[in-house]
Amino acid sequence: MLILYLVTILFDCLHAVYFDDYDHQPKARGAPSTDDIEFEPVMTLTKDKEKLISMKNINCDNFAEYAHNCTTEAAMSYNSVKKSPPMPGQVYDWCKAIRHLTNCAIDWNSDCKDVTESHFNEESIRGHMHVVNNICNDEQFLSRYDELPNCIEGSADAWEKCYAFFKSTVDEQKNTTHEWTHFETHFHMCCARAKFRRCTADALFDIPKTCPYEQAVTLQQFSAIVSEGDVFQNCDINMMYENCPGGDPRPTGKSLSKLMNKHSHSTSLSSESKVNVILFTFYFVCGLIK
C-alpha cells in the first residue's frame, strides 16, 4: 500500500513538472463564517442580466487614495511589522486581511475599468487568491499549521531574512514594468522564487529540535504557497536556473536525498505518520521545482 502511495504521488509530481498549466483548483473549504462572508464581493445583476458587476459606489477618480484605504482597512485585521509566518492563533486574521485586499482589488478593477487606466495587476490578484485557496480555505493544512507555534517562533528571524531578500528582488522587477511575464522579468522573478524556497528549506530543516521534520515540511509548504502568491507564474517553462544571479538556486540531488531519507529508518513514527511524512515530502519537492 505504501508503494502505491509513492507511485501515485510521484506521478502527480511529474505531471506538475511537465504538464502543469498552472490552473490551480481550490481546496475543499469549510462553511464560511459571518466574518468571511463580510469580505466577499457583493455581486448583483446588471439591468441587461448579461454580466455581473460589484456595486460598491467607488470613487474611481483617486486610485492612490483607494489603495491606501484598502491597506489601512486590512491592517485593522492583521498588522504586523514582521514578515514571518503568522502564529497559528493569528492565521485567521492574516487570512482575513488578504481576503480584504483581494476583494478591494477585484472591486476596483470591476467598477473602474471603463473610467480609468489605473488598475490592480491581474496576476497579483490571482496570486492572492491562490494563497487564500491553498492556505486559508484548506482545513487540513490549517489543522497541521496549528502544531507549528514553536517552529514558527524558532525560525522567524531566518525565515524573515529569506523573505525580505525575495520580496525586495521581486518588487524591484515588478516596479520596472507592468509586463511581469516579459522574458527577462519572468526569469529574475522565478530565480528569486526558487532562491527563497531554497533559503527557507535550508533554515527549517537545519533546526530539527525546534522544527521536527513533519512541522518543517508543513512550514515549507506554507513558504512555497506564499512564494507562488508573490510570483504567480509558471516557472517550469523556458527557465535556465543555472544562469540565475548567484548560481542555480534549486536544491541539489544530495539535499533532496537527505530530505527523503530523513526518517527512512525511524521507528518512532507510526505507519500512518510515515505515509504523511512521505506525502508532505513529495509536496515539498514538487514545490521547490515548480
UniProtKB/TrEMBL annotation:
Signal sequence residues: 1-16
Keywords, comma-separated and alphabetical: Signal
Name recorded for this polypeptide: Uncharacterized protein LOC111364794
Biological source species: Spodoptera litura (Asian cotton leafworm)
